[in-house]
């Protein structure tokens, strides 16, 4: 009986390790975007150009997926170089002192709607780590001669003051809520 149980455990571990797949962000087909209110009348859009990300999952769905991302903050791009330089300064991100933003998932839950999930995790900006929840729309996977790809869209809103990005909005009309929209394609 003991040998039989050991055999069952070995089979289970083997099947589990085969079923788990690892994916890396495909930067050519992904984008990490944000927008924030300006002067109370418009939005400023921006993105980060340099980031890496990994995904580990079991099976076809995202039920047990684990995500982690690292963003090089100096890669911020709002299409206005003077503004980007200001965003890199101590008024905002302090990129010399805090060069990276990080996200590490803690759990993911299906919402009951097809291909929709809530992705829970810890977001670190500057010297602050706080829990966030992303609303995720899973686009599925496709296979081609270039390999297997997986797509998703994730969005959330954070309060920049929670992360010590405290440039006074009353002076410049910069909003506190930052809307984040991530379009990701992963390669297996």
TrEMBL record:
<protein>
    <submittedName>
        <fullName>YceI family protein</fullName>
    </submittedName>
</protein>
<dbReference type="InterPro" id="IPR007372">
    <property type="entry name" value="Lipid/polyisoprenoid-bd_YceI"/>
</dbReference>
<feature type="signal peptide">
    <location>
        <begin position="1"/>
        <end position="21"/>
    </location>
</feature>
<keyword id="KW-0732">Signal</keyword>
<dbReference type="InterPro" id="IPR036761">
    <property type="entry name" value="TTHA0802/YceI-like_sf"/>
</dbReference>
<feature type="domain" description="Lipid/polyisoprenoid-binding YceI-like">
    <location>
        <begin position="22"/>
        <end position="187"/>
    </location>
</feature>
<dbReference type="Pfam" id="PF04264">
    <property type="entry name" value="YceI"/>
</dbReference>
């Amino acid at each position: 009986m003991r040998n039989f149980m050991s055999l069952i455990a070995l089979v289970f571990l083997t099947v589990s390790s085969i079923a788990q797949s690892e994916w890396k962000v495909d930067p050519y087909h992904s984008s990490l975007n944000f927008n924030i209110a300006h002067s109370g009348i418009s939005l400023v859009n921006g993105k980060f150009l340099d980031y890496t990300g990994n995904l580990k999952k079991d099976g076809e769905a995202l039920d047990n997926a684990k995500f982690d991302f690292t963003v090089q903050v100096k890669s911020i791009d709002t299409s206005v170089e003077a503004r980007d330089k200001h965003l890199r300064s101590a008024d905002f991100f302090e990129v010399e002192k805090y060069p990276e933003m990080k996200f590490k998932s803690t759990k993911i839950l299906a919402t009951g709607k097809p291909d929709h999930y809530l992705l829970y995790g810890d977001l670190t900006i500057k010297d602050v780590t706080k829990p966030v929840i992303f609303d995720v729309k899973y686009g599925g996977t496709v296979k081609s001669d270039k390999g297997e790809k997986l797509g998703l869209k994730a969005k959330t809103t954070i309060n920049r003051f929670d992360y010590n990005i405290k440039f006074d909005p009353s002076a410049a009309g910069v909003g506190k809520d930052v809307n984040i929209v991530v379009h990701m394609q992963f390669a297996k």
